[in-house]
Design goal:
The chain is mostly helical and 586 residues long. Among the domains are: 130 residues, Tetratricopeptide repeat domain (Serine Threonine Protein Phosphatase 5, Tetratricopeptide repeat, Alpha Horseshoe); 247 residues, 3-Layer(aba) Sandwich (Rossmann fold). 60% of the residues lie in helices and 4% in strands. α4 packs antiparallel against α5 and α18 packs parallel to α26. The chain is globular, with a radius of gyration of 27 Å.
Length: 586
């Protein structure tokens, strides 16, 4: 699908041909009758009859905007996004002042995660009708996805004044507030929706996910069961259920329902992808590893079809980072002496959530999860006239690094006045380690490591949200990315001052929990506290794919898990080998 490159203002001749001027009254009546018949056929899902009627309309009035729009809707519903885009663009070009046409194209872009293009269309719709609720909701949704939730909330609060009982407005507010970690307000939005509509399945699903994140597993399952009672084929609910419970048999009704949904899902669709990952997890629990891997492979193959990940570009970027951050760059650090932040970095599924939970169990520590605010701060230095490059970043003055570091600290500490330490577990900060040290030279960086094959297998088994981890949906690409990650972390060992980065191995932590926990707390400048050994009882929120694991306490089930799938992992093994050599811990 293109990104609106061919949307243009219609010329005057096109506008004239699209209107009713020049048509006789008889032809106008014919058009009205045919349009009503087409609308009725559409409601009956008789798209073949719709097309016959469209052709009759076009014989009377070529370039009819409503026909183009209706064809776009049909193509959207039949999973033909490229064709849908073309028809919606034709409709807009034929009648650029029809607000609903811009909204329909915006919805298409939103569905296909083209958020900047969706925002552009919804804003165009709002210029035509400032009070259009669908345009307001779409605009807010796109802004939230683009990381501008505060702006989304402004729009939604205004919409709420005009539509105080509208559940779509409340759901939009929930999504925006959740993205800002304003959990109490977000939960209140869900409660308000359910007060108005107890059968709102999406609200039950989101409430279930919130309960799961907070470790309330019974409450979470109750909400998911409510979702499925209302919407028995809710694929997201089944995916969440698979995170909640261990299945004992393939004969269970839940598993049978998932298998049936998978069998009837459209090939290569996102629904099929979600179901494949879910069934892979279920069969892995049932120790049917060959069948589980087949589902994982299918899910990843579909994910690979939909990704924009380009291995050569990504690996070249990581190489560029290593070339840009030399020891000389760190001599220009901010000089800030604040030791509040703790950054937990590593590959996905490396044990970082476990590390965060251990630290979060300490009374002097609060966790921010995968916060990722540093990249947002740096992006503010980007502009069309002066693009933000690695060369620009690594040439920042101490004063510029000081501005970035202080802004990060101020935002991080807001709402946490009593915390001695605050954690940021954004794993992609592996590439930001240099910037972290330049902005906050007294911040502690913890690199969590795990056996490469266990780490990669766990990544391959996970249906990550977004495209940041799409290096993991092909075993070959995953192996080469992991090798480059190892090189990057060796680079940080070589250029960072001693004592800045601590490295902890997941396997050692599992084998020697208290000893490794003591070393971890010592590095963070924290006194010993027995509660850190009972991290599974912590009340902080967990949002990652490790939600249920960290609530179990320490366990060794996942050690050497790759051996159960060894015959399927040969592309990885050829690239990475089977030995895990621990670099010296600093």
């Amino acid at each position: 699908m293109s990104k609106m490159q061919h949307l243009k203002q219609a010329n005057s001749n096109k506008k004239k041909s699209a209107g009713l001027s020049g048509l006789s009254n008889n032809k106008k009546r014919q058009l009205k009758g045919l349009s009503e018949q087409a609308a009725h056929a559409f409601m009956q899902q008789r798209f073949d009859i719709c097309e016959q009627l469209f052709r009759k309309i076009e014989r009377i009035q070529p370039g009819n905007a409503d026909v183009a729009n209706m064809r776009g809707i049909i193509c959207s519903e039949t999973k033909q996004p490229k064709e849908a885009e073309k028809y919606f663009v034709d409709a807009i070009n034929a009648a650029p002042k029809r607000c609903e046409f811009h909204i329909n194209l915006g919805k298409l872009y939103l569905t296909n995660k083209l958020y900047p293009d969706a925002l552009e269309r919804y804003r165009a719709a709002l210029q035509l009708d400032v009070h259009s609720l669908p345009a307001q909701l779409g605009c807010a949704h796109a802004l939230t996805k683009l990381g501008h939730a505060e702006k989304a909330i402004e729009i939604l609060q205004k919409a709420k004044k005009r539509h105080p009982r509208d559940t779509d407005v409340l759901m939009g507010l929930f999504l925006a507030l959740s993205s800002l970690d304003r959990r109490t307000e977000a939960r209140n939005c869900l409660s308000s929706i359910l007060e108005r509509d107890g059968n709102h399945s999406r609200a039950h699903l989101e409430m279930g996910r919130m309960e799961l994140q907070e470790g309330h597993l019974e409450e979470a399952e109750r909400e998911i069961r409510m979702t499925l009672a209302i919407t028995p084929d809710d694929i997201g609910a089944y995916a969440t259920l698979a995170e909640l419970k261990k299945f004992e048999s393939e004969q269970e009704a839940d598993v049978a329902a998932m298998l049936s949904l998978h069998a009837h899902s459209e090939s290569d669709s996102l629904d099929r992808m979600t179901l494949s990952f879910t069934l892979g997890k279920v069969l892995d629990n049932l120790k049917q590893h060959d069948r589980a891997f087949a589902y994982y492979r299918e899910g990843n193959d579909i994910r690979h079809l939909h990704t924009t990940y380009h291995a050569d570009v990504e690996l070249a970027h990581l190489q560029h980072i290593m070339e840009a951050y030399t020891q000389n760059v760190f001599e220009q650090n901010s000089g800030l002496d604040d030791a509040t932040p703790i950054f937990i970095v590593g590959m996905p599924r490396c044990g970082s959530t476990l590390t965060e939970q251990i630290l979060g169990s300490h009374p002097d520590v609060e966790t921010k999860g995968e916060w990722g605010f540093l990249e947002e701060l740096l992006s503010r230095y980007n502009s069309d006239d002066n693009p933000l490059t690695l060369e620009r970043i690594t040439s920042f003055s101490p004063e510029q690094w000081g501005e970035i570091g202080q802004a990060f600290l101020d935002r991080m500490k807001a709402g946490h006045p009593a915390a001695l330490r605050l954690t940021d577990k954004s794993l992609h900060n592996t590439r930001m380690v240099g910037a972290i040290h330049c902005a906050m030279p007294n911040a502690r960086i913890i690199h969590v490591r795990r056996h490469p094959l266990d780490s990669c297998l766990s990544i391959y088994k996970q249906n990550f949200v977004g495209q940041l981890n799409d290096f993991g949906c092909n075993l070959g690409e995953l192996g080469y990315y992991y090798r480059m990650y190892l090189r990057l972390m060796q680079h940080w060992r070589d250029v960072l001052p001693a004592g800045v980065m601590y490295e902890m191995d997941y396997e050692r932590l599992v084998a020697n929990q208290e000893e490794e926990t003591r070393k971890l707390l010592d590095f963070c400048g924290l006194a010993w506290d027995d509660r850190c050994l009972q991290f599974n009882k912590a009340t902080n929120v967990v949002r990652t794919a490790s939600i249920t694991q960290v609530r179990r306490g320490m366990y060794s089930d996942s050690l050497a898990a790759w051996k159960r799938y060894e015959k399927h992992l040969q592309p990885l093994i050829r690239i990475l080998g089977t030995e895990y050599n621990h670099p010296q811990i600093r």
